[in-house]
Amino acid sequence: MKLKTLEISGFKSFANRTKIEFMPGITGVVGPNGSGKSNIIESIRWVMGETSAKGLRGDKMADVIFGGTNTRAPLNRAEVSITFDNTDHYLNSEYSEIRITRTLYRSGESKYQINGQTVRLRDVHELFMDSGLGRESFSIISQGRVESIFSAKPIERRSIIEDVAGVYKYKQNKEQAEKELQETVDNLHRVQDILFELENRIEPLAQQASRASDYLTTKEKFDQLDQARLVIELDDLFLDQTKIAKQLLELEQQNSNGKQQLETQNHALSELKVQRIALETLRDKYQAQIVTLTQKVEQLTGEKRLEAERMANRTQSGRDLKMRLEQVQQILTELQNNQKQRQIEFEKEDANVHTAQATLETTTEHADRQVLEEHEAVISEVRNKLVDAMQALTSAKNEQTYLTKSNQQNDANLERLNLKLSDLKAKNAAQATSISEKETRYQTLSQQYTIQKNEIEKAKVAGQKLEHDQKIARKNWFDALEKQERATSRLQSLQRLSQSYDGYFQGVKNLMRAKNQFTGIQGVVAELIQLDASNALAIETALGGALQSVVVDNEQTAKNAIQYLTRQRLGRVTFLPVSTIQSRHLSAQQIQLAQNQAGFIGVAADLVTVASTQRAIIQNLLGTTLIVGNLDHAQMLANRLQHRVRVITLDGQVINAGGSMVGGANRQTGNGLLAQQTEIDQLTLELKQLSQTTTTYEAQTRQLEQQLQEVTQNFQALQQAATACNEQVQAAAGELHLAQNVANQMSRDFEAMQFEIKQSSDGTIDHATRVTENRQQIQMHDQAVHRLQTQLDELTQQRTDLQTKVVAAEQSATALQIKLATVQAGRDNARVRLDDINERIQAETSLAESLHEQLAALDSNQTDRQSEISISLDKLETDLAQVKETVAEKGTELTKVVQSIEIAEANLQLVQDSQTKNLQALSDVKARQAELAQKIKQNESLLLQTYETTYDDSKQTMQTIDTTDLKTQLKLLKLTLNDIGTVNIGAIDEYQEVKTRYDFLNQQQADLLDAQNNLQTTMSEMDQEVITRFKTTFDAIAEHFTYIFEKMFGGGKAVLELTDPEHLLTTGVDIKAQPPGKKFQQMSLLSGGEKALTAISLLFAILEVRPVPFAVLDETEAALDEANVDRFAEYLHEVNERTQFIVITHRKGTMNHADVLYGVTMQEPGISTMVSVNLETIDS
């Protein structure tokens, strides 16, 4: 294996990353003092696992990080990497090249890496273990290491040989084995103590377990028989249940039959009642028909009388109409005759016009007709107006007829609407009252719901608070239970120790275990006194061994006990007879001085509570001891009392009378006897308080649980009530909404009806106005017709006159034009008269037709209505007679149905009475069945809860049990259980547990004894291996040391000697040297150079015995003269084939033999820089 490279970054003065490559042979590192040469060696040691900051010339590990200069800031990290060529696998690793990196941050974080994998420091140490390499091996040798060899004591030099011998791991293993052996011995003692305790417990527990086992056996047999008793009772109950079920089935069948009969009777009765209702309905209906028909007969009779009166009136009207019709027909005949005459005249005049026009057209074309045409237009316009006026007159007459009829209908409709409006007003008022009631109910329910919601919220908050309080109370309860359990466990443990007198002297322990054999033993001092825990250590220190003194009544009791202990050889005990021990007290002056001293607690005897009969004992033991706060107080008080009184501090430091002092503390953390007894008293008191606290918390928890349950039930009830109330609110809201909708609809209907009435009223008023206006219109139109007719006649005359004037004005026209005008005028006049006659004929014809229709209708109505009334009256009288006959028939049927109903009701009552008796019997049987079911349930529940079994399983088990005289057997077994009395069932498991533990501990004791023997054997074997390796290595090093010494000194002699050859495990190593020309002498008597060269010779001898791949020498030869330096360098040159040397030196002789030189300089203040020179290249 070879050292290949070293990379340094941020380590001490190497601020910049520096890489050093190491070649085979000798590598020299030179440089002025303070340049940082030694930092290279320290970096190698650091990266190989050095953990001592002082070993690296620092106070703390962070000091290895570059701390900065005046020009360079400090760095926050130091890192060193070293690389080995491990091709030969010198190091126990699979890698052929190993690179170790160590990094340290100023924050304190660090890490190790091997080939880039993060590892532990331990992994780095293990890599170099027993390889001869490492931070403390002889592969790194400094000048200080050389000095330590010749200045070391012989026993210290022994470690050099041990390191070379590689026994470090054996010594380490031996140390571990010694620790394990001590632990084994301690465990063995503890096991033996526990076994002693268990031996005292196991026999009583065996007896208790035997009684408990007998009890369980008897109890098991009792339980089996009791189960059999329950099964037998269940069998009887099941048999009764079967009988009851049969009875129940029969009664239910009877009940079913009775129900069917009831249904049949009820159905028949219902049908009869339906028939009765139907007949009553028909009777009422027919009676109503009789009333109606009677009213109609009376009405028709009245109408018949009225129609006779009307008939007389219509006869007179008929005569009037006939007279009027005859007049119209006469006028019509005259008009028709006149029409024929006028038609002949018109046709004649029209032929003349055509003749004249034809003649005129041929004779003149330029006659001026404009004025005449304009006059013709006026005539045409007046004629049109006349036609319009006649049509308007006809329309007004028709409108008058319509308005009259419409007015009559409107009056009737108005009367009907007023009646409906009155009814609607009443309904509206009733609806308003209903809405008011519904609104009041809705508001009331809403308020109730709001109140209930508030109550629910309050109950919810109260429930949450109670739940929170209950959780806290439960937690407090459980915490108290846990504390109580821990205190109980601790108290029981301490009581067991106290009862077994564990920790007491053997004699005290044996005596107190046998104290029942004596009378007058009051107890051990430690268990008779009580005191505050803060004073326990001081009092225990004051009493010392007297804590285990036994207080007895008198000297005779002490004598008897001493004879017993002597005879049985059970140990020695100090006795304190109450009858002879006298009190001891301090003087009043001493107490006064003590009370005035700072830190004074009290006289020890006054700090202890004890029975009055034992007070003298305590005064004797503690009456002259003072307790103070600390050692300073004790010294001042002791000086003040001139060291005549023993003073003890609370932490157990003692100043005895006379001035001697006892102090310090043990590693043992366990409580002393007094502290143990005090703790028992405190735990007993604490358990009483905890019991009260637990009971209080439990009661509080139960109370809160009950309150929470009540609040929860109340909350659920409130929720249910609120839900029901909400449903009522919603229903009321729906009803209110529906009522409001109905009211709104009624309001709309009311408004619509009012509007309709208003329209009808307005229509009536409007009709009246229109009738008046229409009459005026008729009068006006009639006047207009006469006026227009007059105007038309005048215009016609004017036209004739105009025509004459036109003819006169056109004197230059021919006679034909005059004739044409005359003919046309004659034709027009004839046409007008003809039209007038035609219109009058049409009007008279219409009037005649109307008169004919009225006359025909009058005759028809007169005849038809009279006939209709007679026919209707006959029919009504016939119907009335039939209905009266039907009413009589239905009355007979109704009487029969009523009689049938009375019979059916009587039969139904009989069936109901029978059914009531049947139901009572059924109820009694069901009650008996429920009673049996309850008893069965109770017995099954007893089986399940008491014996955790079922009827079926018990039934199968019962088959193997003798149930003869069951009651007697149960009675005898119960007497047996009473005789056994109260037993500790837990003793069985406890005995088994203790027995198992006892057997286990016995086995543990055997195993621990075996382990003790094995460890002792192993340690002996390791000692032998160390002796062998040490002796072999020592002999080899001694031989090589003698040879190398002679070579290094050029003569002389040196030997290594063992200071105690008989004890190779502890012997030291001494060096005796005889430089040339001197005698043998101890190394301490040699000169400085001789010491250094002798030590170097020893180091070289070590390297001969335990070669290493590389060695680092840090100014090892500094103390040698030039000649010895040359011999030192020559030796290095001789052995560099097998060992690679890195030498830090100032000596030229060493430099001359180096293969590679590295120079370390500080080109920048405080920062080291490397410069390399290959000397072989320079030489070549």
From TrEMBL:
Residues 519-638 form the SMC hinge domain. InterPro entries: P-loop_NTPase, RecF/RecN/SMC_N, SMC, SMC_hinge, SMC_hinge_sf, SMC_prok. Gene3D superfamilies: 1.20.1060.20, 3.30.70.1620, P-loop containing nucleotide triphosphate hydrolases. One of its GO terms (cellular component) is chromosome. GO terms for molecular function: ATP binding; ATP hydrolysis activity; DNA binding. Its main location: cytoplasm. ATP binds at P32, N33, G34, S35, G36, K37, S38, N39. It is found in: Cytoplasm. It comes from the Bacteria. Homodimer. HAMAP family: Smc_prok (MF_01894). Contains large globular domains required for ATP hydrolysis at each terminus and a third globular domain forming a flexible hinge near the middle of the molecule. These domains are separated by coiled-coil structures. Belongs to the SMC family. NCBIfam families: SMC_prok_B. This is Chromosome partition protein Smc. It comes from Weissella diestrammenae. The lineage of its organism: Bacteria, Bacillati, Bacillota, Bacilli, Lactobacillales.
